Amino acid sequence: MPFWKRSSQEDEQQKIQALQEAENSRRSIEAGGLPIQAQRRLSEETAAGHPLFSSDLSTNEFLLARKQGYIALSQVMGSSIYHVGWQYTRNYTWNTVEAELTNVSNAHQHAAQLALGRLEQEATLLKAHGVIGVRLTTRSYEWGQNLLEYTAIGTAIRLPNTPPPQHPFLSDLSGQEFWTLLQAGYYPAGVVMGYSSYYVSLGSNMTQQLRGWFGSGGYNQEIVPFSQALYTARDLGMYRCISIMIETYRSTKLTILRATTLICSCISLLLGPRSEPRNRIMSFPNHN
């Protein structure tokens, strides 16, 4: 290499540091944590006293926050891009076949937990008491058929005259709802999610009956296996939602404030800082 193109010792050192930081970030993400650069940014923001901050609160929500005394610190985010594994399903059978697609269910469940966990880690680095207005969204990619992404976004807040807890709460309540909740003597505990993807194949017998002129295809009727699959998938999702809630917060004295597409928002008493298709797939939550 010509001498005028050779890297200086300082450039080489910077490359080594960049590679080391990339490796440390990879290990942190594999462990469910945040990239090193994100950790550094949040720590610097906290040390600077939050002179500037971003927030997705509306004007009314921000004014209510000031009235209540809690301070909006920053917008926080957690994200996870996840590969969904393959699972065999029986398509060509005589009788109806139904089963849960456990690979799909587990992929959505784990990806959502990773996104929510990283959201909480960002709030912890900001020394926040909690995150309000949490929105958990998912999407897929045209360039990656078996990939899905979960993203959780909210606004980290700090409560007055109270030391920050070890684990900030997460809440999908808006600023107004959070203010109303505190006025009633309640405190958010967290956001948990239950997911179930359920597969149904009607089978050749029922499919032929529905299509036949002399069978049952000429009049209105309920497709019972599809209806039953929806109920089964919902029950599985709700069971997981409640199980995670009890396991995470070690208490049965919690109230599910609302369950929207089985993304459950839990609250607790204010006791402290954290007290004609042939086949069809039924998925809960349904994000379409």
Structure write-up:
- There is one protein chain.
- This protein is an alpha+beta fold.
- It has a single domain, classed as Hypothetical protein apc22750. Chain B (Translation Initiation Factor IF3, 2-Layer Sandwich).
- The chain is 39% helix and 27% strand.
- The chain has seven helices and ten strands.
- The strands form three sheets. It has a four-stranded mixed β-sheet. The protein has a three-stranded antiparallel β-sheet with strand order 2-7-10, sandwiched between helices. It has a three-stranded antiparallel β-sheet with strand order 6-9-8.
- A hairpin with a 2-residue loop joins strand 3 and strand 4 (144-158).
- The longest helix is centred in the last third of the chain and has 26 residues, at 224-249.
